[in-house]
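input
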Amino acid sequence: MRTTKVKLGAGLAVALLAAGCGDDNTNKAAEKIAEKAIEKAAENGGNSGDVDVDINKDSGKVKVKSKDGEATFESGGDLPEWLSEDVPVPAGAKVMASLGSADGNYVQLTTKGEAKDVFEKFKSDLSDKGIDLAGEPSTMESGGKGMYALEFVDKNGKVVVTFTSGDENQTIVQIALAPETAGE
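output
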């Protein structure tokens, strides 16, 4: 199963690149080739049955459907619908990528500010909303840069958030949701 995920991940990346390059005719051809390549990789990777891939170059969304379920990947775009209003998204954050499936959801954001400051503000905002952390946050710092992580449970399930120092006063925020944990 891990091989399938790696092949699908590589296929999704290639598909997004192919769908964004060239003129309309080239894009349509590249889109079809990428869809077929991803479908074949998924089918050969141990996923029994047909796999359907739909690439929408206008929205940047890639949908993969099989008998095992459906997953959607988007480069850029808006905040995903699965993200609860309880999650205090940093002001001015930009969506870089998101992934949604029945097994879990993920969104990567970038925002201005030092990772430690963004992390501390996020913790404070959670506290203001009456949301308790699940355990102690994790921190790792070196040379003025850092990585910080915390987790909590909201109405949609267990949420894990990491904050990583980027370049030029930028922070990468990764939010993952495991919906099967709702109510723990």
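quick obs: The first strand starts at residue 51 and ends at 56.
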